[in-house]
Amino acid sequence: MTLLDGKALAAKVKEEVKAEAAKLPRKPGLAVVLVGNDPASRVYVTSKRKDCEACGIYSEEYALLENTTQETLLELVETLNQRPDIDGILVQLPLPKHLDEEAVLEKIAPDKDVDGFHPVSAGNLLIGRPGFQPCTPAGVMELLDEYHIDPAGRHAVVVGRSNIVGKPMGLLLLRRDATVTVCHSKTPDLGAVCRQADILVSAVGRRGLITADMVKPGAAVVDVAMNRNEAGKLCGDVDFEAVAERAAYLTPVPGGVGPMTRAMLMKNTLLAARKHQNLV
Ligand SMILES: Nc1nc2c(c(=O)[nH]1)N[C@@H](CN(C=O)c1ccc(C(=O)N[C@@H](CCC(=O)O)C(=O)O)cc1)CN2
């Protein structure tokens, strides 16, 4: 079994972004907005700041209180939309329950939507136009390419149908000529469907969901989830040790898709800066 090393590939992508960002007349700029006290979100936002520093990207962080109103958040996004030095805006998810996530994401100017979550970005992806692609599925595609795993003509099964991972993952694989099945909580006999997969992507968030008997021998298995076991250790959806005996390729958690998500954010911010400086 070959490990799909997202940590190593992310370092390579970030080096490339750094070299390209240095060629721009103006540094790319990213604004990251965090609302509330979710400890995991705080960790991710800190990592994004460090990634920006490493890539030569200017970054600003807005840490808002848990009880921030919808109006205040929308006003902040609008201010950032108007800032010529800010190329990308990212609102860290999940937002506190009282806030309307969809309305906030829709408020971000589509040309600054480096998360690729705006309906304009989602529509472009659906009809095959260029645009910002959501960072996690885009990172999975880069990993597959790096290890020469060509989706064309293969059966790809995506478990999970979220707007930020499952659905765009399915579309990116379809774009590359895979035959795609997207599974979800109402899919009968999930194991039988997964066993057909040459490429299996799990993005559910349930530890132990993907067992070895659900994996076709020789498949490429990509674990997008980020869970914790009883001991508090990070793990994905896939029973790693058992599946490693059957799969030909497998992502670790940590060190697989997570670092690629962050690297693709840097790449999207570079793309936004190039567009704003009329270089693409
Ligand atoms: N606005 C967004 N919110 C969220 C996104 C997103 O893409 N945009 N995705 C996730 C969280 N996320 C990025 O924000 C993210 C999660 C995990 C990692 C990562 O590098 N994980 C490491 C382990 C980190 C650790 O030790 O805790 C790994 O897998 O090796 C990066 C980004 C939800 N919210």
Can you tell me about this structure?
- The protein has 280 residues and is an alpha/beta fold.
- The chain folds into 2 domains: 25-110, Leucine Dehydrogenase, chain A, domain 1 (Rossmann fold); 135-258, Rossmann fold, CATH 3.40.50.
- Helices cover 40% and strands 16% of the residues.
- It has 10 helices and 11 strands.
- Strands 1-11-8-7-5-6 form a 6-stranded parallel beta sheet. Strands 3-2-4 form a 3-stranded parallel beta sheet, sandwiched between helices.
- The structure holds the ligand Nc1nc2c(c(=O)[nH]1)N[C@@H](CN(C=O)c1ccc(C(=O)N[C@@H](CCC(=O)O)C(=O)O)cc1)CN2.
- Ligand LMY7XDAE is lined by residues 43-44, 90-93, 115, 135-136, 226, 234, 253-255, 258-259, 261-262.
Write a concise synopsis of the structure shown.
The protein contains ten helices and eleven strands. By secondary structure, it is an alpha/beta fold.
For the termini, the CA-CA separation is 40 Å
Approximate strand percentage = 15-25%
Number of helices: 10
Q: Class of the largest domain, according to the CATH hierarchy?
A: Alpha Beta
Under the CATH scheme, which architecture of the largest domain would be assigned? 3-Layer(aba) Sandwich
DSSP summary, beta strand count = 11
